[in-house]
Structure formats: C-alpha cells, structure tokens
Amino acid sequence: MNFHYPNGKRFTTDSLSATPKKIRKAPTQFGKRGMTLEDELNESNQYYLSHGIAVIHKKPTPIQIVKVDYPKRSAAVIKEAYFRQASTTDYNGVYQGYYIDFDAKETKRKTAFPLNNFHEHQIRHMKACLAAKGICFTVIKFVELDQIFLLPATNLFSYWDAQKNGGRKSIPLSYIQENGYLIKYQLNPLIPYLEAVDELIKRYEGEHNAKE
Amino acid sequence: MNFHYPNGKRFTTDSLSATPKKIRKAPTQFGKRGMTLEDELNESNQYYLSHGIAVIHKKPTPIQIVKVDYPKRSAAVIKEAYFRQASTTDYNGVYQGYYIDFDAKETKRKTAFPLNNFHEHQIRHMKACLAAKGICFTVIKFVELDQIFLLPATNLFSYWDAQKNGGRKSIPLSYIQENGYLIKYQLNPLIPYLEAVDELIKRYEGEHNAKE
Asked: Which residues of A touch B (CB under 8 A)?
C-alpha cells in the first residue's frame, strides 16, 4: 500500500505500523524518528490550516536563478541556480489576527543552544517585526534530549546583544527552560506550539497594558 | 557613476537624471517606465521597512530542486530544478500588529480585470487568512491606464465565487473604482498602498464592531 495524501506526502504502511508501537512504549513518544523539526512543524502547520486555526507557512528557500531552459512541450527547467541567504525568518503567518513570525533551529548540544545558529539579518528581521507589533519567537529543538522549546524573541535578543559585547556564545538550557515554553509532542498537531504562543500573547499584552 | 546600494540594486546616473525630467512634466508621473508592479512594490516595501513602518516581503518563488552539485571550494550549484506553483499569495508581513497578505497583478486590459489572473489555491489561501483575521487584498495595476488599485479580498471573492456559478470572468474597472482604493504614485514610497490599508482596516473594524 503506497499512495499519496493531498499534502503530497507519501503514505506508507511503515508509518501506520509505527503508531501502535509508540503507544506501548513509555514514556509516550510522538516525535517520529528521523523527522526533522522542519517536517514536524510543517505537519503541525498543515493541521492548524486544515482545522481553520491558523495560516502559517514555511517560506520557500530563496534561489538565485541564472539559467533556464524552455524545452518544447514541457516545463521550464532551471539549469543553473544558487542558494541565496534568506533575509527573513523561515516561518510566518496569521493566528487570531496576530502576525506570527519565527525561525526553527535544531541543536545536538545538550546543555546550551549555540547562537551561531542565527545570522545577524534574521535577528534584525525579528527586531523589525517585533517593532511592528508582531509575535516573534524561535522554536528550538534539543535533538538529543528530544525536547522542543518556544523561546520569545526578546529573550533571544538579550543573549544575542550580550554576545556582541563579548558575552557568551550560547544560551544555557536552564535559561531556555525558565524563560521559554516547553512544547510537548502530541498526536494532533504533533508540535502544539500555538499553545505556547497563547501564553506569549498574554505576556505581551500584560507588558503592553502595564505601560499604558 | 555606477555603484550598488545596500539593497543590492544598481544605482546609475540614468535613474538620477530621470527625476528632474519628471518634475517638469504634467501630470506628474512617478511610476518609472519599464518597472514592473513587483519592482515598484519591492521598492515601496523597502521604504516601509527602512522607515520602521511595516515589515512586508515578497516570498521567494517556490522551486523544486532535483539535482545539486557541490564543487570543491565553491558554492553549491543547482543543476536541475523546476518552478512549483505557489500555494499562497506572494506578499505578506506585519503592519501595526496587523497581518497583511496580498497578491499583485498586472493587466493590459483597460476596462476590466480578468479573473484568470488568480488560481483557486490563492483564493483559498486568502479566505483562510481572512478567517484568521488577517488583512487580505489584491493590488491590481492597469498598465495601459497607469492606475493602481487596492481591492479588498472580500470584493474579489464576490466575483470569483459568482464566476464559478457561471458569472462573468472579469471584474469591471467601474466596480474596482467603486469598491477598491486608487493608489496614486508618489515619490516615497512609490506606491503608498498602506494608506489604502489604513482605510481597509477601518472598514473591517467598522464591520466587526457592527456585529458585536
């Protein structure tokens, strides 16, 4: 049995048989082996979209196209192109009227998240979005710990800006645990990160009201 | 004189000498000859970004990469790739906390805008964004008339849905003039479409309050 779902992903009996196994295991492990954080987020976003909860997409990878062939009777073929550095974060969209903007990063480190996972322009983009009253954060997956956190952009900025003034080059896990939100895998959606976003929105609105 | 601005665009004396000429002309023509609507919007978005007004970007074109070479000591080269159909609109971002989502279309027609400029999935995307309380619209340029309009998504949907039930295959210019917002070229930004968005936000909030 091998067919395609409307989302273009191949459905195989492997993925079917994997489910009962997981249920027997303790602790419950929803995160599928071999799935990247990007895959997991795309699947979660697909769930949010199909259930009318949010419209959040990963942006396409920016490509500099140099040469394109137009063969007769068939689609244009790109024959020479190069990867360009993105000038924004990877994910954005809308949830309950809020503009959502984030990047997703994986690390194999177990005690801290290295800041060199970010580029200056991504930070600049997030600062601009935050200034325009967007909801900005980063989703960090500690692969070896199998733990995912949502860290608000402002917390990321603290470490980023300190690093530029000679501060440490990574964010300690303990800081992320205290200031971020642990996102526990579940079945639908796989990564229910919008629950953490709800908390973040409350925090922002609390800060906003406090200023008024 | 020929150097590059930080936005990567080449600056030439041609573009410099063009400015005084325009001022002498009547009526004033800010839209640069040969600039596509996409160029004009990108330039306007760059202005909004650099002035801290809004963060709105065009999404990269989605590409299906088939073959990549990794030559030693140089960047990866994409050797075979294909254009994919976008599943969303081209532009999105954040303005004063509002999620902004739109597509930009040009037509050479003078009396109506053909609906075949849109694909079903783009309409579906806009409907989903609107349901999630985003601000959705389309920017339509009548090239021959040198006129640009912002048409709210709901007005587009009226014609789109009617078309599917055998209605007309284009939106009359007169309808766009009545229900959309004419955006007049100016110097900075070239296409001040956020002024029309301000009106659209007022309209949405008026409707929202009326329902409560």
From this structure: 49, 52-55, 57, 59-63, 65, 75-83, 86-88, 92-101, 125, 128-129, 131-134
Using one digit for the tens of pLDDT, what is the confidence trace for B7-40?
555 544 444 444 444 444 445 555 556 789 999 9
pLDDT in tens, A86-140: 889 999 999 999 999 999 999 999 999 999 999 999 999 999 999 999 999 999 9
List of residues 6+ apart from B23 with CB closer than 8 A? none
B48 SS3 class: helix
Fill in the amino acid letter for B135.
I
| Number of C-beta neighbours around residue B89 at 10 A | 23
What is the per-residue pLDDT for B7?
A: 53
B98 closest CB neighbour out of A62, A76, A99: A99
pLDDT, tens digit, for every residue of A140-167? 999 999 999 999 999 999 999 999 999 9
Domains of chain A: 11-60+87-211 (3.40.1350.10)
Q: How far apart are CA A54 and CA A91, in angstroms?
A: 12
ipTM: 0.82
Minimal Cβ distance to A82: which of B49, B75, B129: B75
- The backbone torsions φ and ψ at residue B198, rounded to the nearest 5 degrees and listed phi first, read -55, -45
**Residue numbers in A near B57 (CB within 8 A):** 87-88
Q: Residues of A with CB below 8 A from B95's CB? A: 132
**Dihedral sign of CA atoms B123, B129, B133, B136 in order:** negative
Chain B residues at the A interface, defined by Cβ less than 8 Å, are: 49, 52-55, 57, 59-63, 65, 75-83, 86-88, 92-101, 125, 128-129, 131-134
